[in-house]
Amino acid sequence: MADEKVKSDPSAPTSTEFGVSDFNSTTKLADSQTISDDAEYNPFEHRQIEKPNTTLGSLTHLLKSSLGTGILAMPVAFKNAGLLFGAIGTVVIGLICTHCVHILVKTSHMVCQRTRVPVLGFAETAERVFQYGPPKLRPLAGFSKAFVDYALMATYYSAGCVYIVFIATSFHDVINHETGNDWSVRIYILLTMLPILLIGQIRELKYLVPFSALANLFIVITFGITLYYIFKDSLNFDDKPMFATFGTLPLFFSTVIFAMEGIGVVMPVENSMAKPQHFLGCPGVLNTAMGTVIVLYAVIGFFGYVRFGDESKGSITLNLPLEDTLAVVAQILIALAILFTFGLQFYVPMDILWRKIHDKIPKNRHMISQIALRSGIMILMGGVGLAVPELEPFIGLVGAVFFSSLGLFVPCVVETVFLWPNELGKFRWVLIKNVIFGAFAIFALVAGAYVSIKDIVALYTDDDEHES
């Protein structure tokens, strides 16, 4: 997916270049135009990609993007929901996330057809929807594009902060246990910043490929070891509640949304397909990938919580017994996997940011500017990790604020604006449905952020009281 390029098509209004940078949807659009003939425009016929992904390859990309650190946090999500509510809630949230991705891609296809553009990304879809939407909303076109771009940057930067805390926490537990040290996790965050500052300076995707390959291998091995520990002894279901408490439900919702939501990956994957018509539909790439993700997340969350109960931590690997060499190996491997993944995670928002500012910087200062900018942002991310070194509420906060708004709320708004006012279905059911989903996204954002921040404040208060 990294190096596909769309060739210029003489019958299409624009030429577009795609890569991992398209997480920000950097499609260059043609000037505003109207449809000049009656022939139905099929955007799929005008896509010419040098190295298109097969349907199977696109499915693999989507699965790989979804099966990361989020799945390791599912047992703690179930701890905040209970067995029965957690299982049902995971499926429901998974279906909502799938639907929101579906309406985003479908709306993008319809916008491409209406505006005679072969391909659009996330931000450009939002922009064009407002450009051709109700006249009163058209001035918001530029804002909508900027909002998606900056929200994507914030999402990836904040997820990178979670990565730093996760890596440091994993090494903290292993090294302190093996050596008998009593070092704070903040010391490990500072040590983690050394390799982070080096990996984050890689600006060519081809140099990140070996890191990603090793990360994928380490994640597979870690999953296998984790499943071994979950199922190696008999499981006790009797002492696990079917429903937790209403006060912890916002953390459940925000954690599951953080784990499942991969909205930034969707458009690049779909845009690079040889047969994009296979992305939606039944079974389709999206439904197959998300169905698999929902099942895996529900299984890991359910049985992980049954195994570790209220002791479940922000990553299930942190619950593995450090007395066992196999558990130590798993914890080290997953920490290295996330460390090696950081380069790609950081590449995405930096590419968005650099595209926005590079024209304002003299070319002879591009190199030093990139080094300084990347270093400064990574140091800031490390500072956030130092300020909030607790993994569980941090994941909930990121999921609540960024993934709920970008992955749930924005697709609902985009579809509603595009179909307004005469294509919203009988009794305007599309509007009603999107208002409900949008309200759920706002609830997840506000309640999840409130509970997460409250937990973070409580942790610091407890620490201060303990120290005094």
Automatic annotation (TrEMBL):
One cellular component term from this protein's GO annotations in UniProt: vacuolar membrane
In what ranges is there compositional bias, type Polar residues? 11-20
Q: Where are the transmembrane segments?
A: 83-105, 147-171, 183-200, 207-231, 243-267, 279-306, 326-350, 371-388, 394-419, 431-453
Show where the Amino acid transporter transmembrane domain sits: 54-453
Question: What GO annotations for molecular function exist for this entry?
Answer: L-amino acid transmembrane transporter activity
Could you say which residues form the signal peptide?
none
Superkingdom of origin organism: Eukaryota
Q: How does it sit in the membrane?
A: Multi-pass membrane protein
Q: Where is this region: Disordered?
A: 1-20
Chief localization:
membrane
Q: Which UniProt keywords apply?
A: Membrane, Transmembrane, Transmembrane helix
Which InterPro entries does the annotation name? AA_transpt_TM
Where is this chain's protein located in or outside the cell?
Membrane
This protein's name:
Amino acid transporter transmembrane domain-containing protein
